Amino acid sequence: MKHLKSLVLALVLAFAMTTSALAAEVPDNLVVENLNGQQRIVKTYVLPPEKDPETLKEPSFDYDGFTYTWAFTTKDEHAFLESKSVTETVTVETASNNLDKILAELAPSVPYDDGEYSGELALDHTTISTVAADYTTQYGTVTATKTIGPVDRNDMSYVPATTVKNGMTLKLSGVTWQVTGTDLVGDTLAPASYQAVATYSASTSSKVATGYVTTAEYKGEVTASGVDSITYTVVYVGEETTPAAISGSAAAATPRRIITAVLCLIPLLLLAGLGVFLFQRRKNVYVYVPGDRPRDYRLVAKYRVEPEKPEIDISDLEPYPEGIVAVEIKRPLAKKLLGQNFTVRHRTACCTYTVLQDRPGDWREFDLTKEKEEVT
């Protein structure tokens, strides 16, 4: 009888311990202790920040002669701060390729925020590059004036048909004759010398830029911070259970009640065990492909990977991804594989890289079109 009672109490505690497992929350640690004369059971959970701690509280339960009731819950936040280098390219259009006017269009710094990392990026002046946006043809006329003389008569043979200006040949377009000297012929003054004022011209055409496009890079360190996980400590205080006096008839019925209770608990324990098994077999490596918008990714596959065999094979994916794929190793597995190699096998070759971070997980991208890629 005594051994049977102990068995029932052990099963009741096991059921109480697996209640949270049915909700996919298993304590990371469980301690039964007597602290300064107070009997306690302390359960510790390490959970993501979005988890509601109220779901961890359990109704009162009996174990080993004590009735345990929730007393209080404490939490300890685990913050993280990560940084990375970012480069973004900015394009501006200007009417001139004058550097001062271009710099007036480029801000000294720009804000960066991708939803996870944020910060300020500074303009890298060494990356400024300006090219013409387009060209148009511009037409014009070049003219020149030439004075010829004095000559003895207003004869066109004295006037050259062409002249050269700035390396360009101009044709004669007009002549004006002027008298520069006279002689007395009889009683009349007659022209004795002349000078010609000749005008030359030529049509020109040239290609000129209609505007300019400038590209420049902004660079800097951006950071991501927040709460990575929270440790909740749930404390239950026990009060010693006073056994009731058992009459002769009640004593005779006690074994049957105990056996009935055990039989009722068995399905619940099996269900709890199934919940624990499914929780332990959850997928821990996700595969994504780029979505329709920048920095948008679409989940295409999930895998269960054991630490002893850190690899996945995506050769059988349908539809098979082309180009860029991203592999995310969830935090529990990333913590175990930190500093170890992880392999992604695909149809043409494989990609092996080193797991470098475990908060919030390890994220890597690579191009399937390359024959083989080694990432460190």
What count of domains describes the coordinates?
A: 3
Poorly predicted ranges: 1-12, 14-24, 245-251
Helical content stands at 10-25%
Strand content: over 45%
Distance between the termini: 64 Å
Number of DSSP helical runs: 4
Following the backbone from N to C, one meets helices and strands in this order, namely HEEEEHEEEEEHEEEEHEEEE
Number of strands: 17
**Average pLDDT, to the nearest integer?**
84
Shape: rod-shaped
Biggest sheet architecture: 9 strands, antiparallel
Radius of gyration: 45 Å
Q: Which structural class fits the helix and strand makeup?
A: alpha+beta
Describe the structure.
The chain is of the alpha+beta class. It has three domains: 2-78 and 230-280, no CATH class; 79-229, no CATH class; 285-374, no CATH class. It is built from four helices and 17 strands. The strands form three sheets. Strands 1, 2, 3, 4, 5, 6, 7, 8 and 9 form a nine-stranded antiparallel beta sheet that branches. Strands 11-10-13-16 form a four-stranded antiparallel beta sheet. A four-stranded mixed beta sheet has the order 12-14-15-17, with no helix packed on it. It is rod-shaped, with a radius of gyration of 45 Å. The model is unreliable at 1-12, 14-24 and 245-251 (pLDDT under 50).
Spell out the key features of this protein.
3 domains, 376 residues, 4 helices, disordered N terminus, 4-stranded antiparallel sheet, 9-stranded antiparallel sheet, rod-shaped
